[in-house]
Amino acid sequence: MDAFQTILKFFINRKTAIGYSFMALLTMGGERVFSLVAFRCPCSNENLRYGLVFLFSPALVLLVIGYFLNSKTWKLFTGCWVNPRKIFPRGNVCHFFYVFGQITLNALIAPVMWLSVALLNGTFYECAMSGLDNPDYLNVVCNRKSDKCFGELHMVACDKSSMPFSESDELRRTLQAQSQILGWCVIVTAALLSLLTTCCASCQSKVSHLQLMFWRVYEGTEKEQLEQIFQLYATKLSERNLKCFFENKEPEPISLPAFQAWEDASQLYSFSSSKQHYSTIHKLVEEGQKGTSEERETMLNFVDRREIP
Amino acid sequence: MERLRGALDFCIRHQTVLGYSTVSLLTADSEQIFSSVVFKCPCNSGNMLYGSVFLIVPAFILLLLGYMVNARTWRLLTGSCPLEKCHDCSPWGTCAHSCQVLVLVTARALVAPLTWIAVALLSSNFYTCAASGNSLIKDLICKDQGQECQNLLFKIPCDEKLSRNISSELLSLQAQSQLIGWFLIACIMTVALISTCVSLSCSPVSYLQLRFWKIYSKKEQELFEIKAKEHATNLAEINTNCFFEATDPAPFHTPSNEDWKKISFLYTFNSQEQYYSMIHKYVNTNRGNSAKFEEGCQNPTVLGFVDETHAIESGF
Fold first, then answer.
1. Where does the sequence pass through the membrane (chain A) (predicted)?
2. CB-based contact (8 Å) between B165 and chain A?
3. How near does any CA of chain A get to the CA of B193, in Å?
4. Which of A72, B112, B123, B166 could form a disulfide with B62 if both were Cys (CB 3.0 to 4.6 A apart)?
5. Global pTM exceeds 0.90
6. Is the same domain home to B282 and B246?
């Protein structure tokens, strides 16, 4: 048992890396399936549209799924129609855009992975660009080839052109090479941007490294405790209600948080360097459950982010 | 069961070395996969760009990943923009210390990129493609032979027999690539050996104390995780209960922001005092309040493992 515990702990410590690797493998698998099963280049004037749709629509779908799966989105938007002041609090209007920007950056990981894998494979780009009618582009690609290239480039992807095999093979290789170089550029840009933004955010953090580590642990345990206490109180309340219903008795009082307390506890947490609160609930409990004061506060990236798979 | 436990203990004791070996193996495997599945030399004037991109860009990406994953980077960077950390240190001292840490972090992060480049050169696909489009190689091989020779040169990566026909005096591109690969590996090994020897010989600490220090760091990190989880559980329980029961929380002491800041400095060794970590120093100098706590900007540690055990916790 000890051995299994150790192995489990090893994997749990690396769950971020494992999660991202799994996502990358899934993207690669999905891209393979798509290009083998679903993708059939039309080899006509429609190449460009077809190729671009296959390249960008799955990315859009993954972006939307990314938004759906991030619980911060729902924390931000729940009840905002009823009370718009919630997302645009007085004196801190940019807070909404800051949080939305963070959610978007997290949701962009899967689409960028898809785009890079699809470009490295080359099939979609090859089909799309072989249908591009731009004369400058055609001059570059069909440089030093026969004149048939200009008219029959869109048939090259299906090997249906009347050009000699060496020429059409070279054209396909050129298009695939362009696609792969573009794919590497996408990956490098994404990696550089994420490193720079994480560095900037880390640099400006008002919280020291070890405290940040403790904070992550606290956030995880608070979530577990909340789940447990929800189960406990829900059981207690439903038992009491059903018992009173069936046995026709008066209900005994059970104390539950008021509506305003729930509203206050559901706000997204912002850190204040003068206080020492690790979450909204911690703050509420220490300052009383009447309401929270709205000061300009900094926001830390990872808080509330752990819910992303 | 006993054997499994023994094997596990072995793995845990040597987890750094095993970790780096795994990273190298994974890099080598991905290179093979890329080489055989993804890489298709275009065999025209784009050879040089295509081959170089496949050789250099993945190495660069692996370097960036190496930086992101190393805990010491974040320990160095977190909260360092407001530069109020070390009051008694000169800015020059802090800068030198940061540079030293940066060099150590870069050395660790370079394992995967150098493995990629070495394996790629040994397989020779990328180099052959890039070199066949290179003007230097063209001048060497096709001395006065004009455009036809250049076109043939472009086609070499796609056609095995061509390379034998073109030049018999010069080494084939494949052989060149493998020679460069072995030379690179030899250089890396030499530099690694020399730098390890130099850093160990400059170590302010004796061999046995160093071993004790390593074990102490690891144990402290393990216990820190356990204690942090325990503390967090207690605090979370108090908070959630008070939220539901609308009562006031019982007094519960948790370290203040200042205390956390004090133990988060990168540890610097001082040969007069005998502290094995920042927490040790903090606890022994009256919770960081005595003047002795502020000293210690001398002898920045060159020892690799200090602060490195936090890499395990930081998500990789």
1. 20-39, 51-69, 96-120, 181-198
2. no
3. 30
4. B112
5. no
6. yes
